[in-house]
Amino acid sequence: MDMHTAAPAVPAVTTVLLGTAGTTVDDVVAVARGNARIELTAEAVAALAASREIVDALAAKPEPVYGVSTGFGALASRHISHELRAQLQRNIVRSHAAGMGPRVEREVVRALMFLRLKTVASGHTGVRPEVAQTMADVLNAGITPVVHEYGSLGCSGDLAPLSHCALTLMGEGDAEGPDGVVRPAGELLAEHGIVPVELKEKEGLALLNGTDGMLGMLIMAIADLKRLYTSADITAALSLEALLGTEKVLAPELHVIRPHPGQGASADNMLRVLEGSGLTGHHQDDAPRVQDAYSVRCAPQVAGAGRDTIAYAQTVAERELAAAVDNPVVLPDGRVESNGNFHGAPVAYVLDFLAIVAADLGSIAERRTDRLLDKNRSHGLPAFLADDAGVDSGLMIAQYTQAALVSEMKRLANPASVDSIPSSAMQEDHVSMGWSAARKLRTAVDNLTRIVAVELYAATRGIELRHGLTAAPASRAVVKAVRAAGVQGPGPDRFLAPDLAAADAFVRSGGLVAAVEPVTGALA
Asked: CB neighbours of 193 closer than 8 A, spacing ≥ 6?
């Protein structure tokens, strides 16, 4: 998948200090998208060394300890002798690096590796400090392991994706260099002065056992959806304006009596965009109507519910960022205990929840677009916003494209997390499918960007066709900025795909929000 063709905004962070207490949403985005450097704190190095001493002591004992001196999964009953343990750790990485399909995006792999390093640095995994430092060195060098689309069931962590990353640390497999060229990982490590790791007891397992891929994709989706929901509030306001709707439904006193915070935020955003408009309030003119259609009138309620869902998803993400996900884990009292914290259910559920609300936001945006194009419902706009309807088709097929995207969004909203398929000889008999939920959410976010872009295209054209009426200052700023970005205004039919692509890039890059906020102030 070729996602995020125009770079989203990233936090202005150049160096991330990684300690034992987890990390932040902004730090994950900064590393994944902004190539921020990673430095392990002295506290993390000390915790790594202390937990390694515990693992080494257990490894010297005759009693078997899962992950230290046994096999894995359904093979955990076999005790592994000392001379075979290094081979065991290499073998688990090699055998689990079994992904198939196209490569996943560079930002996903960087988030995946950084989040695994976050857990390693917690001091609960028993990994040596030098292995953690190698993980940081690989990320800092801009080396990105080749990770494939398929291979994770979202339980026992994102096993195959993480195994491909661990393979790079061993100097095996393929990776992409900072120049974007895929080459043997060993060559890339050598060029950057990085010595491949020789894994010891438990380390191979500790590098594979986490929800890091699905969590990284959740965090980036949240960042993108926050921007998109603000963008959708703006396009909803523009559509209301182009349809000569009433802004009275956005009054704060109407939203405070149903105190969902997201709803109030969306209504306030729309009201601020519409301030000073000469187009609103004409619903009692030539063709009087008591109320606007639901897609216009209920825009804050639908977008607001999505905002509240994003807030909940961020709460889950932040809890997971504070977690140490591994099996077994090294506890502060020296015990090494098996557990089920690698199960991806908490992350998988919110990934699916976000796909649902994204689909609904896309659906209501498409309904507003269709209303703008229908001369029987647009209150005086020409059919399909065409220059000469009949000779010109206007934006007819732009709405077809938007409708196709909405239809796919509905399919993508079908939850992955309701599925489970047994693996590892029924030892792992219930899995989360969180990786699959994350992959389809990325597609959904990509499609939602395009849907919002089509509404922007239609709404700005509709506003410009309202001759004799003056749009709000914020709306005029949007029209000016979007035209400067290469999205053309009304006129005879032309090749539409370039206009739609320019609108997509404008929304995706944050240009729409940036055009409005100098007029409105910062929007929620």
From this structure: none
Select from 16, 24, 38, 449 the least CA-distant residue to 219: 24
The CA angle 375-380-381, to the nearest 5 degrees, is 65
CB 310 within 8 A of CB 226: yes
Instruction: For residues 501 and 504, give the distance between their C-alpha atoms in angstroms, rounded to a whole number.
Output: 5
Torsion of CA 76, 81, 83, 89, to 10 degrees: 10
User: Which run of H or E residues covers position 93?
Assistant: helix 85-96
Catalytic annotation present for 66: yes
β partners of residue 175: 145, 183
List, as one string, the DSSP characters of 127-193. Answer: --HHHHHHHHHHHHTT-EE--EEE---SSSSSHHHHHHHHHHHTT-SEEE-TTS-EEEHHHHHHHTT
Other Cβ atoms closer than 10 A to 315: 11
Q: How is residue 96 written in tokens? A: 């689990």
Q: State the catalytic residue, choosing from 66, 229, 294, 312.
A: 66
Question: Per-10-residue mean pLDDT for the chain, 524 residues long?
Answer: 51 90 96 98 98 92 82 73 87 96 98 98 96 98 98 90 98 98 98 97 93 97 98 98 96 98 98 97 65 96 98 98 93 90 95 98 98 96 97 98 98 96 85 96 98 98 97 98 98 98 98 98 98
Rg (CA), the chain: 26
State the pTM of this model.
0.95
